[in-house]
Specification:
Blueprint: H1 3-7, E1 20-26, E2 40-47, H2 48-54, H3 63-71, E3 75-78, E4 87-91, E5 94-96, H4 110-116, E6 122-124, E7 127-131, E8 137-139, H5 145-149, E9 153-156
Antiparallel strand pairs: 1-2, 3-9, 4-7, 5-6, 7-8
Length: 157
Amino acid sequence: MTGDEYFKDKDSSERPTGPGFLVGYPNAAGEFNGELDGGCDYLSWSPGDVFDASYRDVSGMPFGLAIEAAKKGHSIARAGWNGKGMFVVLMTALYLPPYKTADTARKVNDRTAKWIGEDTPLDSQPYFAMFTATKQWQPGWLCSQADMLADDWTIVE
């Protein structure tokens, strides 16, 4: 749907002047159903200059915005990385009861209990992990200076 189509039935005082964008916000389920207006809870007209100042293409972000995306649960990657299929995620904090807990629910495994003790719960703080080009999971990923200063970060879906 174009802005002209959206505003055709509106009073002339509601019609925008100048270039802009018709912005659709997803429904309560966070989804669009294929039609711009059919899957939206809210449609809004944004003048072109306001839109340009407020929205940003996420196909070339600085590291700070990529971190914000990771905090929201997205996987992120650099376009400039040579390896195919590589991405980074933020692993959230994790608390597990001790290995010796009688409960059969999720608890510290024997591999971890070997190092922290069988009677010690696991209190894991958030960290970044990378899925590497060799299809290996690498916890504790640290970015390089080049990664921090790059503007080619993307959200990986």
